[in-house]
């Protein structure tokens, strides 16, 4: 058997500790499977003395991850520090430049510097693997880079943020408001003290940006993602969705269109009977539509130390076997430029909820504006607001047939001008799924 | 770039034609991704002249697949002939012995000769890849061999036969009898003229046998699978399942127990809200429980020329990149012997439907027998048979708490002896899923 593949683990948080524990428990089996042993020889962390529940005896300890990255004691640098700059970025660059393979769970780093790092890895003849960076334990990177490499992908979409999915699921199952769910999620550790990054969709966007590149062979372009979080979703929307045969999920979607590639993160109505609609709580799911495979859906844990460690170790196993895959599915220099499809050209169905004054003609004005923009309606629901202060305020809910974003936006502007509605209408895009 | 990887495709049915078409359409992209071109240089089929809608000009044509397997014109033998012996087996053996890699979609061959062929491949230093053999377009082989290699798998289960799932789905959605659904499935091409192999579970068993080996590192043991088909399932069972919060699916399940590994294929009640319960029609799904990843579910097309070709080409791409994975996840000589866990020791919940005469004391007899075997009941439903000839016949449906197969079987024997029931009770196992 070849010499052991020597790992340096930078960052000893939950995931780092799980990785070391996994390799301790299953190291022998892995060596048999890969034909090569794997051993952690060195680690880095800020605090040398903290008890992490793992045995670090015999391992060289660095406080500077860059020193670890350049150490002669390691063949693979495992970056579990996090963050899109600072020590994570500099140590990954140092490792690649020193001819070390890198395994990382850092989505923010990849979303920002992925193409650049891929070129650096390829110039140095080493691998940069990151299965754990996207959807935790779900093997979506390998599925795209390897299993679906014979397909032209037409769309990739998924539930990639457990915090949002937990909140939306509880709002649906228990009829609790967004604010109360968020507070509960924070109490249970499913949401950060500052939850902005999750609930506004940025976290999903980071993952989507990398998946878009893998799926379509384009450069990563995280800044070109249309972004809408879940803070405006009410229990009224969720109930209406239920009655109309939908569930509301925060999806990240990348889709090929005639004018480029749409990348969008927004609350989405998905048909109840679709696989993605059944993904509840903190679970994640990623779905791919390809020209030969048809549709594939992967469901699993999107976070957690152990599940993430499973993916980190899968990347390490590939290195132990000597499997070399281009970082972004094809050599970074061959990636096409990303062409953004404008959101105003987005085509799809829409759910729109208006609060109207209970006066004759309000609905006629709405219908007229829709008609002016050639938007045809599939369903119309009218009802009194259960939660309104004013008994004379009604909800009017429309489901449109396939139309365009610009038509909907212009119709909403026209309706606002008539003065028949109160407040800002709620607008949720419907995703067509089989 | 290295010399092109030369393929010989044996068998030009639906899948073979799709593979050739896929390589024609996406060959350039694949070469960029893999760093090596792939080209079909030769094919074999029985009939040279048939129009298959693909261009075979320039390809060497063999009528004998063994000659193709041994040809100097190929590096990889792609076996798409089918069958667990005859030309498929002999040509695969010939190819491996001649030092050619083999890619196959042949589950029957692997279920019967997998370990033997794995040893032959490994002795000759070549690969035997078979992503397409199990669940069509779903990348479950790669997921088990590579993505989950750091996990101890505790259970693997799935819906792996589209014919059965199509029939069960239509029975549920439309209330049609098994016989009518089967006839429709045959008319639509979803079921064979002789459907036995599908509806009795043999096809699922072949796939399960290979997955068990991959999941648990044991030798393939297809003859040790407990087998029960779907022919006894009635619309009454499906309706009762629905009322009790379940759906009925034909599952293949392999599970680690204290006494060995259970392998079983049988109709199964799965909780409605589980991911697997939502898999309808001809779709397949495979789920894996692992100690680090937790639970993972993959849903996709289990058959069809194009979806299967997607998996065949994924195997070819691995060869083009030079990725070498042991055939059954670890070297065949290291596989452990398979120890069968006896079905009578199976633990789980049970659904039992009796037809009883409408006389006092019948239910007391049933309850007494259950109590004698320490079987506690979770739900009891009693109702008149809607479909009975005799208005005095009632259905009694029980859902048990966790118990053992032997206890249930002995209780049913005891109940039969009392004479309070008519016919054979229906017994469907419940799978505990999160």
TrEMBL record, chains A, B:
Its EC number is 1.1.1.3. Pathway: Amino-acid biosynthesis; L-threonine biosynthesis; L-threonine from L-aspartate: step 3/5; Amino-acid biosynthesis; L-methionine biosynthesis via de novo pathway; L-homoserine from L-aspartate: step 3/3. The active site is at 207 (proton donor). The keyword Membrane does not apply. InterPro entries: ACT-like_dom_sf, ACT_dom, Asp/hSer_DH_NAD-bd, HDH, HDH_cat, HDH_CS, NAD(P)-bd_dom_sf. Keywords: Amino-acid biosynthesis, Methionine biosynthesis, NADP, Oxidoreductase, Threonine biosynthesis. The keyword NADP applies. NADPH binds at residue 107. CDD domains: ACT_HSDH-Hom. It comes from the Bacteria. NADP(+) binds at residues 10-17. L-homoserine binds at residue 192. Residues 351-429 form the ACT domain. GO terms for molecular function: homoserine dehydrogenase activity; NADP binding. GO terms for biological process: methionine biosynthetic process; threonine biosynthetic process. Belongs to the homoserine dehydrogenase family. PANTHER family: HOMOSERINE DEHYDROGENASE. This is Homoserine dehydrogenase. It comes from Roseibium limicola. The lineage of its organism: Bacteria, Pseudomonadati, Pseudomonadota, Alphaproteobacteria, Hyphomicrobiales.
């Amino acid at each position: 058997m070849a010499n052991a593949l020597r790992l340096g683990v930078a960052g000893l948080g939950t995931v780092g500790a799980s990785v070391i524990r996994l390799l301790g428990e299953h190291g022998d089996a892995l060596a048999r499977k890969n034909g090569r042993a794997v051993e952690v020889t060195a680690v880095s962390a800020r605090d040398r003395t903290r008890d992490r529940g793992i045995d670090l005896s015999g391992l060289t300890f660095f406080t500077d991850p860059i020193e670890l990255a350049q150490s002669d004691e390691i063949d693979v640098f495992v970056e579990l520090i996090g963050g899109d700059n600072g020590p994570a970025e500099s140590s990954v660059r140092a490792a690649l430049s020193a001819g070390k393979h890198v395994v990382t769970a850092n989505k923010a780093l990849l979303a920002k510097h992925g193409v650049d790092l891929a070129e650096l890895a390829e110039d140095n003849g080493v691998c940069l693997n990151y299965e754990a960076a996207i959807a935790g334990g779900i093997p979506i990177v390998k599925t795209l880079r390897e299993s679906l490499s014979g397909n032209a992908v037409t769309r990739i979409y998924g539930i990639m943020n457990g915090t949002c999915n937990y909140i939306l699921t509880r709002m649906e199952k228990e009829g609790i408001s967004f604010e109360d769910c968020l507070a509960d999620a924070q109490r249970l550790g499913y949401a950060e003290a500052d939850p902005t990054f999750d609930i506004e969709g940025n976290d999903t966007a980071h993952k989507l940006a990398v998946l878009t590149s893998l799926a379509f062979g384009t450069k990563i372009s995280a800044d070109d993602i249309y972004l809408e979080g879940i803070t405006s979703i009410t229990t009224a929307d969720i109930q209406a969705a239920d009655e109309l045969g939908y569930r509301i999920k925060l999806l990240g979607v990348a889709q090929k269109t005639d004018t480029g590639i749409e990348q969008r993160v927004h609350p989405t109505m998905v048909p109840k009977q679709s696989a993605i609609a059944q993904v509840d709580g903190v679970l994640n799911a990623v779905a791919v539509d390809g020209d030969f495979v048809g549709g594939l859906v992967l469901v699993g844990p999107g976070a957690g130390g152990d599940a993430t460690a499973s993916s980190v170790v899968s990347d390490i196993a590939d290195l132990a076997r000597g499997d070399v895959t281009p970082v972004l599915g094809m050599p970074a220099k061959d990636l096409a430029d990303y062409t953004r499809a404008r959101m105003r050209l987005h085509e799809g169905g829409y759910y729109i909820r208006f609060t109207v004054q209970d006066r004759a003609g309000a609905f006629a004005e709405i219908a007229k504006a829709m008609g002016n923009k050639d938007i045809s309606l599939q369903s119309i629901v009218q009802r009194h607001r259960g939660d309104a202060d004013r008994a004379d305020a009604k909800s009017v809910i429309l489901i449109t047939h396939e139309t365009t974003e610009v038509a909907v936006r212009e119709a909403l502007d026209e309706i606002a001008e008539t003065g028949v509605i109160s407040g800002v209408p709620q607008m949720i895009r419907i995703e067509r799924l089989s």
